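Support case: user asked for a sample of complex input and structure output to validate their parser. Sending the pair below.
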Amino acid sequence: MRALRKPAPGPGLELQDIPRPGPGFREVLIRVMRTGLCGTDLHLAGWDDFAAAQLRPPMTLGHEFYGEIVELGAGVATEETTDEGDGDVLHLGQRVSVEGHITCGRCRNCRAGRRHLCIRTSSIGVNRDGAFADYVVVPARNVWPQDPLIDPDLGALFDPLGNAVHTALQSPLSGEDVLVTGAGPIGIMCAAIARHCGARNVVITDPSDYRLALAATTGAVTVNTADQDLRGVMAGLGMTEGFDVGMEVSGAAPAMRQMIEVCNHGAQIAMLGLPKAGYEIDWNQVITRMLTIKGVYGREMFDTWYKASFMLGSSQELREAVRGVITHRFTPEQWADAFEAARSGQCGKVIITWD
Ligand SMILES: NC(=O)c1ccc[n+]([C@@H]2O[C@H](COP(=O)([O-])OP(=O)(O)OC[C@H]3O[C@@H](n4cnc5c(N)ncnc54)[C@H](O)[C@@H]3O)[C@@H](O)[C@H]2O)c1
Ligand SMILES: [Zn+2]
Ligand SMILES: [Zn+2]
């Protein structure tokens, strides 16, 4: 099978022909149909400090994907091996997305059902072979069966969509004024979810006109931080106090500083964007205005997946807004062009099509 791999420590990747893996105990083999590229893949391909600390080559990358179950390993519950028969078992031919975080099941948080807080989380496509390949083996319990309504493109977006749902649903949104900083694929999906959940004004900022044009299709108000005055836009919207809810999805220090400036007293800010390095913020503002800042990582297993599925299932408009973040598609053989497109920033989500 084809697999896009990091053959050895250092920059670069290789599309290799390697044997198809088989599923082990409580694992399934998935025929991959679509895989999305994300910032993590760019870090791993480029081999920065994060990559050198995380990745033990040789390794196949890729963790945002959708495909079809083609083999069940021993120990996987099936219609034949469980007598409950209530339909939540896996079967051959099932179309699925996959949670890329593998949790230990033994730490305090895992045992309390808070698997997103596992202290030993490892990742598909980073710590074990991933889905930039024709086939991938994953633990059965990481599989998320998808309704036919969710086509392969939408299915491949569930990992970043889950980040957006997890971020957006940290605070009540109905009737609130929401600021999203960063109009990357995840920020755009955050804005779409905030609109879906009945926010009053949803404003999204970015210094890139390309990204803001994509974000505008969600119906959110777009603001270019390079040449537009956010306070003027707020006044134009009839906002007299400040944003009630913030979602920081850029990882950029200036975005977080602006967020703190324009949030109302008592605002709740969810932070998903990963800064490249530590930075200063005005802590006096955080304290005297009693702002709540909460870090958000990954997706809740599997409540975020439920919410993502049922929100998309109930709204054609949300499905189209989410689908709208896909701007580029490549074959596996064009992988270098795909990474180049993703690196350029003149893109939304870049997808590799395997079937
Ligand atoms: N915490 C997690 O579990 C998790 C998971 C996935 C991604 N992330 C992080 O979330 C962020 C969003 O992911 P993405 O794939 O959409 O990233 P992305 O890099 O495509 O988008 C970030 C956007 O922020 C914009 N930006 C830069 N400076 C800004 C500023 N001053 N104000 C407003 N916007 C600004 C950039 O132009 C870019 O469009 C990234 O930082 C990523 O590392 C975190
Ligand atoms: Zn990702
Ligand atoms: Zn754990």
